[in-house]
Amino acid sequence: MTVTSASAKAPPTIDRKARLKIPPQPMPAQDPKERVHNFDEVYLPLTLETAKAEAMRCIQCPAAPCQKACPVHNDIPGALLRLENGDVIGGAEVFFQTSNLPDMCGRLCPQERLCEGHCVVGKHARPVAIGRLEAFLADQLAETVGYPAPDTIEPTGFRVAVVGAGPAGLAVAEELAKKGHAVTIFDAWPQPGGLLTYGIPSFKLDKRVVDRKVNFLLERLGVHFVGGVYIGRDKTLDDLFAEGYDAVFLAHGASVNNRLDVPGADLPGVMQATEFLVRGNLPPERLPERLRAPLPKPRHVVVIGGGDTSMDCVRTAVRLGAERVTLVYRRTEAEMVGRAEERKHAREEGVVFEYLTSPLRFEAGPDGRVAAVVCQRMELGAPDASGRRRPVPVEGSEFTIPADLVVIAVGYTADPDVVESQGVEHRPDGLVIADEETGETTRPGVFAAGDCVHGADLVVTALAAGRKAAAAIDAYLARKAEAAA
Ligand code: SF4
Fold first, then answer.
1. Ligand 1 centre and the CA of 127: distance in Å?
2. Ligand 1 centroid to 172 CA: how many Å?
3. How high is the pLDDT of residue 11?
């Protein structure tokens, strides 16, 4: 498949002024009153007519700042030019040239600070809806002709173990399997997908989209998946090399929930974000035995945190039928790190936001379960090490929020167990030390990329790093083959 660059393909007759007058197309979405009763995606599928009309709003600027701002540098103008001409498959193929997960990135990227945030049309009107169009094209291709794959794949005889079945792991598995390497993915969860399956709720990413990709890897590319295996505990890197793997790619993410050190944090009814999200969003058969008990229907839910995970939690709580869902965050909305769109959706769904509020303790009711969160108001002081203004308690401002379920969503760290004493240098916080360009770690043959190197970040940044590491692993194996010849 050869695709020329967007600017080279753009016809000289593009009338940019006329295009700027094309109104933004309405992007269909479920009404908040309806969507709070289901776990279906908020956004509804586009029609071809809407997608083509929206693609025509792209003014095909030669500098393509959207492409530069995209972490995998998707040729957005090139894809949208094909779409407006009705070449849906050709448009999708452009995205698949630089991305393994356009159907997911189109749904999940914070486009307002990446591609769409740099769209020149956005200086005049709403930016071109790049993410929605990317997902539309990728869905169309996947559902009609299937994901792109070589007609024949010549086996190289090399075996690669991928640790972690999330975005970086899936991308590396796909890239290396297409080169003929035999890939096995190991993951602590029973099913593949990592964060895509076990972190992101279905109302943001339909699990069928993840399953579709996983099935392609397993059935079409011959990737093996071994679930329920925790590398570093059940099996070591030495074990993997002893089993005959020629290289190992670490993509175990940053999945350990940060704890909140306040009195009552261990009460029944106080739960970490991951447990709440998986039990609230997934059927028991996709979960390990210990997490299969259904969640009791909550009445008053309090979620502590300020990032996208906290939004996932409050919106899941709404869908589980909670009467009142409150988000408690110690700074103001301006300091929140998550997407504004997520907060908008949460507000539309009835979530109450308590800004400048910090939990002091969780109190138990007569049954011993959590019954209330005692909070304290805060005000913003001088900036801290993160550059954000430090929240300072306001004396005498305590108040209580009733809660029969409290969810802690205050961030994630990497699990050092995976690399501890395994010849792979890591930082005290568990993050693996790896080369930015190649993913090489301090142990020969072991590569790493994504959240286990940089900490919790975006799907698309993990994907971008994974693609670089895949190229480096392929080169490493080529050197091994040369040396053996
Ligand atoms: Fe935009 Fe993300 Fe798609 Fe890149 S991968 S074009 S940043 S939505």
1. 13
2. 19
3. 62
DSSP assigned state of 289: G
Degrees to nearest 5, angle at CA 26 with 24 and 27 = 115
3-state DSSP: the chain helix, strand, coil percent, rounded to 5?
A: 40, 15, 45
- CA distance linking residue 193 with residue 190, whole number of Å: 10
Atom of ligand 1 nearest to the CA of 69: 7
- Please tell me the distance between residue 139's alpha carbon and the centre of ligand 1 in angstroms: 15
The pLDDT-based confidence of 10 (bands split at 50, 70, 90) is low
pLDDT category of residue 417 using cuts at 50, 70 and 90: confident
CA distance 306 to 127: 26
User: Tokens in use for 54?
Assistant: 């929206």
Nearest Cα residue to atom 2 of ligand 1: 109
Tokens 């972190």, residue located: 199
Residue 12 CA to ligand 1 center (angstroms) comes to 26
pLDDT at 6 over 70: no
- Asked if 447 and 455 count as a contact pair (C-beta separation under 8 A), the reply is no
CA-proximal residue: ligand 1, atom 1 (nearest): 115
Segments in 43-181 forming alpha helices (H):
48-55, 65-69, 76-84, 88-98, 102-108, 130-144, 167-178
Residue among 447, 367, 388 at smallest CA distance from 161: 447
pLDDT of residue 337: 86
pTM of the model: 0.94
Pocket lined around ligand 1, Cβ cut-off 6 Å: 70, 72, 74, 76, 99, 105-106, 109, 111, 114-115, 130-131, 134, 460
Q: What angle separates helix 459-484 from helix 167-178, to the nearest 10 degrees? A: 40
